[in-house]
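hey so i finally got around to running the thing on that chain from the lab meeting. sorry it took forever, my laptop kept dying and i had to restart like 3 times. anyway pasting the input first so we r on the same page abt which one it is
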Amino acid sequence: VQLQASGGGLVQAGGSLRLSCAGSGRTFSSELMGWFRQAPGKEREFVAAIGKIDMIAYTYYATSVKGRFAIARDGAKNTVYLQMNSLEPEDTAVYYCAYSQDYSSSYDSVRPYEYWGQGTLVTVSS
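ok and heres what got predicted. didnt touch it at all, straight out
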């Protein structure tokens, strides 16, 4: 499995960006996909995840981004997106997409994810 993250860039506070994570080597269907971010000097933290249980898709968000970010999956394109609105300087970080072959209730931990993308930098200016 290979993950390619893209879509990062420089944006002013209040602006929007959409990150993409294209997967290859496996068809993403019922597994767990997540977005994490890491700011300079800080640990990698959970942002959002999407998984499927019994054909029903579930989405999860960190409290800090709930209501501003949205995660979605396009199965036909084997791609997961992170739409980020109302960006704040505190959102500045390298964003990583991650893939787990099995759904996990620990979706907000790095532990379940076996594969990671290379990261894409998001910089939000004030």
